[in-house]
Design brief:
CFA77 protein, extended, 6 helices, CFAP77, 0% strand, mainly alpha
């Protein structure tokens, strides 16, 4: 039985002080100084990309050869292995055009001279003045050929409402005997 309020004791004895936990690497384990001073660089292996099969082209050529059954198509695909063409797809191991850089281009720098002269404030003020002039100008009404304002369907229906339909009390013949 374990003691009250204490976990059950482990029956295994721990190794001595000279024991190293984990894996000891004889060649590389030089501690922090070696890790900081000597970086291991890995040479990139040339990666030849295997393109996927081009089933569309193989299917067309198989039909041209006269294949009509599934087994014939399977044999054609087996012996005439046509792969998709590499169109400089930029994936892992793909070809990169010379002079191409990745990432977003930096923003063009703001001209310091325009900031010092409050040029952006002046542009904003001109924009606001133009907006107020447009808002204050009267809205021109659409004028017809005869010089009068044209009516649309809504204004016509307001002036001339449709006649109200009277409710008919017509009932089918089969309900007359009820």
């Amino acid at each position: 039985q374990p003691e009250l309020g204490k976990p059950k004791r482990n029956c295994y004895s721990l190794p001595g002080l000279d024991f190293t936990y984990g894996m000891y690497m004889h060649k590389r384990d030089g501690g922090v100084p070696e890790a900081i001073g000597h970086w291991d660089s890995v040479k990139a292996k040339p990666h030849k990309r295997v393109m996927p099969p081009d089933f569309v082209t193989m299917g067309r050529r198989a039909v041209d050869e006269g294949c009509t059954k599934a087994r014939q198509f399977a044999l054609y695909y087996k012996y005439m292995d046509i792969r998709c063409k590499d169109k400089n797809i930029l994936r892992y191991g793909g070809k990169i055009p010379p002079g191409m850089t990745f990432g977003r281009p930096p923003r063009p720098s703001t001209p310091f001279f325009d900031i010092m002269q409050h040029r952006y404030k002046e542009l904003w003020m001109e924009h606001q003045r133009a907006r107020t002039v447009v808002q204050r100008s009267p809205v021109k009404k659409k004028v017809g050929i005869a010089g009068e304002v044209r009516e649309n369907r809504t204004s016509f229906l307001r002036a001339h409402p449709l006649p109200v339909k009277e409710e008919s009390f017509w009932h089918p013949r089969r309900f007359k005997k009820v």
